[in-house]
Amino acid sequence: MTTTPPRWRCGCCLDHHNDYTSIVVNKFKMCTTCVKVMFERAIKHEIDYPATMMSTELHPKHFDHIISAEFVERYVQREKEYKCPTNSRAYCKHLTTGGGDDCVRKVCGKFVGPLRQEEKEIVLVVASCGDCSKLTCLKCGVALNSIEESPSHGCEKHIEEARQAEKEELERAFAGLKLGKDWQPCPNEPCNRPIQLGEACNHVICSYCKTSFCFVCGTQQSADSDHWYRGGCPRYNFPGESNAGYDGEGDVAGGGGWGGAELSLPATPVIRSRAASAGGWGDENRYAGGRRAPRRPHSPTPSMLQAEGMMQGIFD
Question: Residue 252 above 90 pLDDT?
Fold first, then answer.
């Protein structure tokens, strides 16, 4: 007697399947394609790390029946980079040339380890790049041509130059933008990433380090603190604006009330990192009239990612 495979639906891409390949996470069924895309997104984009489903953190080593050992190793190496504080990461700055007909020289960019600027001058800390095998000083991050060059290349000078270059780059990137309205750095010092709020309330959570803070003043604040009452910062919109919404006060836009000490709308943070395009910082209509209502964050479906070519050759 032939058994008919069960018909089931992936809760991520919503495609129907007639087989036994479903992967269940907290009673949530997923297809193998969705699981693979989730891990590939995590390895390509730090904002999507770690891969999670229904608040459960997933790791590719637990899915070795569909994911290769080579990919698991790549994921583990990327984890080391992600777990290192942003301002303590050292990357290979040597110029490399592509193989074959590709003669274009470009910066290697491989993560080589954490900076160790706290080490005393007598300590020599050098790392070899896993891709190009060239050397990098882990005190200042400068590229070295030989181990003999390390003691005399002047770490303090390079550290100061790197800090100045980073400051100038930040000033160029945010020229004409207002702190606390157009952008705000994460107050967690090891992270300190610039963040833009697309819409929703002013209580935000850094998508990278999960620090909870106020987008207006940049101080660490929880969603249920008294910071959002009059005397602090408005939960919605900005201080001094007619539609600024504070906890415990009436709805400025319609007089319907904010619900006393509780908001009638949930304070769902929506984080926007800097847009990759040259067009700037994303949603130009994020400050439209009225209060900025929360919306549920979402991720592209696997079918959308496939259309972008992200699935080609990933797990071969």
Answer: no
